Amino acid sequence: MKYNLLLLSILLAAACNNSGDSKDKKDDTVAVQHDTMHHAPATGTVPELPAVPEGSKVFFKNLKNNATVTSPFTVEMGTEVMRVDTANLVVAGSGHHHLFINAEDSLATGETVPKDSAHVHFGKGQTAYELSLAPGKYKLTLQLADGLHRSYGSKLSAVVNITVKK
Q: Is the whole-model pTM more than 0.90?
């Protein structure tokens, strides 16, 4: 009985010492677990879409509008001001890339990027991708979105038209 009371006292003291400081720390990061197919948060609280810092933009590093390429080719994706981060975290001033193939020029601010063959997700923070396309004309759109795949809108998208030759 003495040992049980001693053990209980130690556990209570440890619990009291670990509960205080975490409330005082402020962080711009909100961890969110979500279902990758529906992008629905499991926690019930959805953080607001972070504001886009002034001067932010996304761009294709190595593709110019009306370029002709041979498949497969590498798509290099860049950002200015915004940081590239992984999915699942909503972090102010960051997001991750999505590549649209023959799809929209951009999605409306806050709209979730679909998960289908025309919308490639780079939720691991990738900034380069080897793309194989059949010969023909294509419109490629680069769209930055937050950790929940919510679009930052037209201000963080870029479009190039390319021709893939045989």
A: no
